[in-house]
Amino acid sequence: MIKNLIWNDIKQNKLLSAATVFFMTISAMLLALTVLLASSLLGAIDSLMENARVPDFMQMHTGELEVSEISRFAQSREEIKEWQICRFLNFDNSQLTLGGISLADSTQDNGLCTQGEGFDYLMDMENKVPGVLPGQVYVPVCYRSQYHLSVGDTMEIGDYRLLIAGFLRDAQMNSMMASSKRFLVHPKDYEGIKAYGDGRGIAQEEYLIEFLVVDGADTGVLGTAYAGEGLPANGPAVTRPLIRMMNALSDGTMIFVIFLLSIVVLLISMLCIRFMLLLKMERDRKEVGMLKALGVGKKEIRILYFAKYALFSGLGAAFGLLMASLQKAALEKQLKEAYGAGPGGLSSAALAVLAVLLVEGILLLSIRRALKKMEKLSALEALLAPQEERPSRGIFSSVGAGIRKTSRRQYFVIGLVALACTLLMLVPQNLYSTMSAPEFVTYMGIGDGEIRMDVRQTEGIDSATEQIALALKQDTQVRQYAVLRTKSCPVVLEDGTTINLTVETGDHNIFPVSCLEGRLPGKQGEIALSSMNAEELGLTVGDTLKLMVDGKPVAHTVCGIYSDITNGGKTAKAYDLYDGGPSVWSVVYVSLEESAGKEAWMEGYRKKGVDVTDIADYVKDTYGQTLQQLGLASKVSATISVLVIFMVVMLFMRLIVEKNRYRVSLYKALGFTGLDIKRSYFLEGLLPVAGGIVLGLLLGNLLGESLCGVALKAFGADSFRFVIDWGQVLVLIPAALSGAAIPAILAGIAEIGNIKAYECCVGRE
Fold first, then answer.
1. Which residues does 215 contact at the CB level (< 8 Å), separation at least 6?
2. pLDDT tens for residues 260-282?
3. CA distances for 273 relative to 279, 311, 483, 512, 654, angstroms
4. Which is more confidently placed, 517 or 742?
5. The three-state (H, E, C) secondary structure of 711-726, written as one string
6. CA nearest 241: which of 492, 488, 569?
């Protein structure tokens, strides 16, 4: 009997039933998709790092190196299980071509290496250790699509030519956020190319000093001990957790956006399903009263209702899982390219099923709570259902007022959903436009110049920097420039331990970065810390930090804290370090006169052996993977938003018309045409949609910054401001939502044409 009752109810309420299944399906799909993608990403990263045997602690160093010192340190530390020193031959990008395309515009430090002896392996596309032959090279997989490469193409280093034998995944430097990229060659080619580069002054050899530690060992303690011994540390240090975080963040932004989307859609679904249930219960009030009068208990009535929604929930869960599985393949394409296939299997599927059960459980719990209202009604109260309100005397002039009075809650839901859908489209789009804008560099710890010049792969970095500065000073096309030198400086903490700090020196106020607190250094004795360094060291503005300069501790006052994502987010900026040792690298920021031709100017300095990059290209190169994923997430969010607003508006306008069926019939009997009545309902439906869109645009641009700030803080970028694409915000987003809402309103009020004038005379609603 219950089956027949449920089936008859579904046939009589096709629209409500379909809408309920839709909301349950879309909610389940989004959270299941989030779980599947997160499981795939983290599983693939962990699998790659495990197969590659990523070091637990790595110190980069440029300059002279005594292997015996490293060996002695490793033998003295019980937590060190294995250690090795990998060489990295860093080349001037202007000397490199891939498939005939020059890497002169690349913002990455590109170099050659050989396979690690005991760990830190570079893996092929099957996540296996490749065997590279003389004359061959394996290229980072991120360059395959960027430069449209394939096996058999060539890589040229000056006059030296290598055949591309395959592509590699570098568990350490896979992410574009990692500023270096390694090309795998045979040891014979490495030595030959090194001699070639040394003879022309276009290559510089760096060292990766790597350690594997026993399980449970603290790499922070190891890093402090390493710095305390005064061992080679002319470069940044990274740990395994930092490597994992950089990999996850570069490709996890899309998953984060889909997760937020799933939460908002779940809340919308709870609101809409609960409202539809209450409306259905109001319609069934007399029937419920009759059942109670006949002696049917509350439990049986509740089961009758709940069984139907349990059936809808099962259908929604099944459809949601199916749709999530279909969407996953398209969305994880880049993840598989970068990291390979994760373990997946039963564990990933089980997590997705649990996510779907959680969503459906929340929705059913909301339904169960709504059903309790019905149980509180006595049989007499249920049978004495309130009579529908009749229209006031104002005839057609009062139609709008009558609709607002009887359907205020429905219109409120429409406006609320329009607001939520606007936020879902706006926030990912604003995040994308912000991260792709040149201005975003100020939250990356990079000056807001027009052009960036790097001096790295050369002997005598300081003298080369001076020559560039002199040339810029005499260049009439240059409006202003700033020379910043990066040095590795020991810092003495309060407990007496020593750590190495990457300090960028120079005048930082010419092209300033964004400060969270305080200001950038403007004189000797001042230092600004990145937010990650300040948090790790427990320092704030006004505190003192002792830097070892020429072997003596020199007190520096912390004058500011700024956002930074470079070098793992752990940097510092000082005005000057006196004679604080040679530079690890130098960066020159330049802005040109309006009359200058940027491309020609950049090409002229590239011919002098300098890496010259447009800042806008620098951002795109650094966040290429992230922006691609974020763009994909933005499209998914926009598609879901359009579907949701169409479904909600159509459903609720249809319910409003049905609720006011007697009223519509009466107005037709009074001589008003169906077109007149439709026009009134159309305007009443359009107003909350327009209001929701406008309010969503305001809230999205104001509160959206705080929400995205939580995500970007993990990158080291704090207190940022949206860089808004006003064409998208003021035209495309409102047009897309309105373009979905208007046909939905028309479809929802189409039933007005089928309502007859005589229905009000026979009591039909």
1. none
2. 889 989 998 998 888 888 777 76
3. 10, 14, 61, 51, 15
4. 742
5. HHHCCCCCCCCCCCCH
6. 569
How long is the chain?
A: 765
For 211, the token pair is 């350690």
CA distance 178 to 169: 13
Alpha carbon 659 to its chain's center: 43
Beta bridge partners of residue 182, listed in sequence order: 111
**Structure token digits, residue 457:** 């792969």
Q: Which residues contact 25 (CB under 8 A, 6 or more apart)?
A: 315, 316, 319, 320, 323
Torsion of CA 212, 215, 219, 223, to 10 degrees: -50
Instruction: State both tokens at 183.
Output: 């090309």
Distant-in-sequence contacts of 290-295, Cβ < 8 A, 24+ apart: 290/379, 290/383, 292/377, 292/378, 292/379, 292/382, 293/379, 293/383
User: Model pTM?
Assistant: 0.78
Q: Please give the C-alpha separations between residue 633 and each of 38, 262, 697, in angstroms, as whole numbers.
A: 14, 12, 19
Dihedral (CA of 599, 600, 606, 612) sign: negative
The answer, yes or no, to whether residue 311 has pLDDT greater than 80, is yes
* Cβ atoms of 630 and 432 closer than 8 Å: yes
- 541: tokens are 């503005």
Helix (H) or strand (E) holding 211: strand 203-213
- What are the DSSP calls for 450-517, one per residue? SEEEEE-SSS-HHHHHHHHHHHHHH-TTEEEEEEEEEEEEEEE-TTS-EEEEEEEES-TTSSPPPEEE
Tell me the backbone φ, ψ of residue 218, rounded to 5 degrees: -90, 110
Token couple for 6 = 């449920």
The answer to whether 640 and 30 are in contact (CB under 8 A) is yes
244: exposed, middle or buried (Cβ count in 10 Å: 0-12, 13-18, 19+):
middle
Count of alpha carbons within 13 angstroms of residue 357, beta-carbon side: 6
CA 379 – CA 291 distance, rounded (Å): 8
The tens digit of pLDDT for each residue in 66-102 reads 899 999 999 999 999 999 999 999 887 888 999 989 8
The DSSP call for residue 729 is I
Q: Which of 256, 245, 211, 120 is nearest to 570 (CA)?
A: 245
CA dihedral sign of residues 493, 497, 503, 505: positive
Cα of 37 vs its chain's centroid, Å: 13
| Residue for token pair 């209001």 | 691
Is residue 465 over pLDDT 80? yes
Where does the pLDDT of residue 167 fall: very low under 50, low under 70, confident under 90, or very high at 90 and above?
A: very high
